[in-house]
Write a structure and sequence with these properties.
The structure holds 2 protein chains of 2 kinds. Chain A is mainly α. Chain A has helices spanning 18-32, 44-51, 55-67, 90-96, 98-110, 115-130; strands at residues 71-74, 78-81. The two termini of chain B are 33 Å apart. The chains are: A mainly alpha, B alpha/beta.
Chain lengths: 131, 290
């Protein structure tokens, strides 16, 4: 039920439209289980004020998620994550990281960083983050 | 519903044609950013649209009334902030706002007081002693006091610092959200527009070059990168290519009508999937203006 801790972040000057950035973030939160069925998304107003963007942009993202069947409009309460949204399999979650992976591999090659060096470095940083 | 319409409008100053057979509409409740180089006709468009200037040819209407002969009732529904302020500089801010309020039965004293506090303006000071940015903010408050349904701002943020610009953009968003105010603001700073506006219009040499959703624009104008010769794609007849750069094996092509459904055809033509790079509004703007 708690949605106030959700951290959204958009970059308005990116080439990717803001509403797409939002949809992708929500999809990641669903995949990871940070958003579960029965949870509510922040209200359009709230999120527009927080991110300082046009509320129509937020509405657009929410409407698309509704069309795709991930959220449901509950009268007087806002947008609720629907029953069927479950935490995705590892495979599916990794697929969401593919664009980042392509960049990482390319830059590792440019910087002459080996597979082992890259893997160790990632593991080290993930451990640091979690401790 | 369109609250503002311009059909085939032309306007010249002496021999200098500024608007050339221009068409433009604004749907109720939208925030639109008007973008164009200096001298493209932004100010003339805004002034003609609300009858501050008379068209030479064509029609301009607001709330369904001819802009040039607008009724007093219709005028009360509009707020306008000019690019350069022509205040009575010896007035204090307070005197100016009092004076203005007398013209409008719907003047909202509380809202004005809140804005004055929020934007940190000393209204007891003579206007001539305020900084340019503060004068600008005062002009904006003066235009918003009667809660207009249509707010037109000519380069409203040009003289504000980044923090004040951000606060102002936030104010525009709130106004649109709370009161469904329709807003047009002209600017040449694309980043201001990306937060606030849902729609954009590009004006160039007195004509509207593009008008539509900012999101749609960002989705349609992309750079396609691939290894191979430009000839692989340049023949595709449903691809609108605005620019091609070939560096040896690498080709980079800017396309203005991209659609994800094209990816399959592109991949077939190239033998491998191309890289699709999305562009910022600034890049798009420069791309369309070449």
């Amino acid at each position: 039920m708690q949605t106030e801790n959700l951290h959204f972040q958009v970059s308005p000057s990116s080439g990717e439209p803001i509403y797409r950035q939002l949809i992708e973030q929500i999809n990641r939160m669903l995949a990871s289980g940070h958003l579960k069925s029965g949870d509510f998304l922040p209200s359009v107003r709230q999120l527009a004020a927080q991110l300082e963007v046009n509320p129509m942009t937020i509405s657009k993202a929410y409407s698309l998620l509704e069309t795709q069947g991930q959220v449901e409009r509950v009268r007087g309460r806002g947008m609720m994550i629907v029953e069927t949204s479950k935490k995705s399999s590892l495979q599916e979650r990794l697929a969401l990281l593919e664009p980042l992976l392509a960049t990482l591999i390319q830059q590792c090659q440019q910087l002459d960083i080996s597979e082992q060096q890259a893997v160790e470095w990632i593991a080290e940083n993930i451990n640091k983050e979690q401790s | 519903m369109n609250i503002l319409e311009m059909n085939g409008v032309s306007k010249s100053y002496k021999k200098n044609a500024v608007l050339r057979n221009l068409n433009f509409t604004l749907e109720s409740g939208t925030v639109l950013g008007l973008l164009g180089p200096n001298g493209a006709g932004k100010t003339t468009l805004l002034k003609t649209a609300i009858g501050l200037l008379k068209t030479d040819k064509g029609e301009a209407s607001v709330f369904g009334e001819a802009a040039w002969n607008m009724s007093a009732k219709a005028k009360e529904r509009i707020g306008f902030v000019a690019q350069r302020q022509e205040f009575m500089l010896h007035y204090t801010g307070e005197q100016l706002l009092d004076f203005t309020s007398a013209f409008y039965p719907t003047w909202d004293k509380n809202k004005v007081a809140t804005l004055v506090t929020d934007w940190d303006i000393d209204t007891s000071k003579q206007i001539s002693t305020l900084s340019e940015g503060q004068q600008q903010r005062l002009a904006i408050i003066q235009a918003m006091g009667h809660s207009p349904e249509l707010l037109i701002l000519d380069e409203p943020v040009a003289s504000l610092d980044p923090a004040a610009r951000r606060a102002f953009i936030k104010e525009l968003i709130d106004l649109n959200c709370d009161e469904q105010t329709s807003i047009i603001f002209s600017t040449h700073i694309t980043s201001d527009l990306e937060r606030a506006a849902a729609d954009v219009a590009f004006i160039r040499e007195g004509k509207i070059q593009y008008q539509g959703g900012l999101d749609e624009l960002k989705e349609q104008v992309v750079r396609i990168g691939f290894t191979g010769d430009q000839g692989l794609l340049s023949e595709m007849n449903n691809l609108q290519i605005s620019q091609t750069k070939q560096f040896g094996e690498r080709c980079s092509m800017t396309v203005t009508n991209f659609d994800h459904a094209m990816l399959l055809t592109l991949t077939q033509k190239l033998g491998t999937a191309p890289e699709i790079e999305q562009l910022s509004l600034e890049d798009i703007y420069l791309e369309l203006n070449r």
